[in-house]
Amino acid sequence: MMEWLGAFGAGALAGAALLIGAAVAWFVHVPRDVVAGIMAFGSGVLISALAFDLVQEAQETGGTGPTVVGFLAGAIAYVTANLALDRVGARRRLRTGKSKSGSGSGTGIAVGALLDGVPESAVLGLSMVGGGGVSVPILAAIFISNIPEGLASTADLRRENRGFRYVVTLWAGIAFACAVSSLLGFALLDSATPQVTAVINAVAAGAILAMICDTMIPEAFDRARALTGLLATVGFLTSFTIHQLA
Question: Half-sphere exposure of residue 104, counting CA atoms within 13 Å on the CB side?
């Protein structure tokens, strides 16, 4: 029972970072240049996490085939969700940062947080199978990257005149989904084949990369410009160092 609670708690902790980022953006006036810098940093963290914790793990456990299939599936799922949102006017935006139809990129980042957060959290729970405890590199990478996702998305949602209840419900729902996903990853994937585990890892990685390229880096570059690459590099090295030291 304690192990089940531990798996749920690990997912909840990772998901709570989204709420922390959202709270900062809601209650503190964060300049758009700062938000852009945080998005650039978060992009680097996510790239490192998907490369060293997700794709590498998928390749080592399940081989190339499942890794490729899962990676493409994750990217396609994210792009498909964004196209559906575009059709209903929920995510259209201009590159100047001003939105069409009263909406911007905040919803797009939230979709990415959900699509990569659920399989990421399942992997987090799966890392606890066998009594080895939670994977510190994966937990740290998810937590660090979730803060700028929550902050950047909420900053955009505020500019889109979304209400406080909407924002809290959105992120609380995603955080809860991450906690449940971690629990299910621990409870249901214990007997999963290496190929299934690889697909789950790769789905998260594909969704992350698609979200970074579609939303986070373009939005960061609009404001941070020349610093975008440097901040992304620092984020990458931060996550990579945690991975190496853990």
Answer: 21
Q: Which residues contact 132 (CB under 8 A, 6 or more apart)?
A: none
Cβ–Cβ under 8 Å, residues 150 and 18: yes
Rounded Cα–Cα distance for residues 19 and 137 (Å): 21
> Could you count the other beta carbons within 10 Å of the beta carbon of residue 28?
10
Cα separation, 237 vs 246, whole angstroms: 14
Among 118, 125, 137, residue whose Cα is nearest residue 178? 118
Is the pTM of the predicted complex or chain greater than 0.85?
no
Q: What is the CA radius of gyration of the chain?
A: 17
- pLDDT tens digits along 191-240: 778 898 889 888 888 988 988 888 778 878 887 788 899 999 999 998 88
Torsions phi, psi of 101, nearest 5? 55, 30
CA 139 – CA 117 distance, rounded (Å): 11
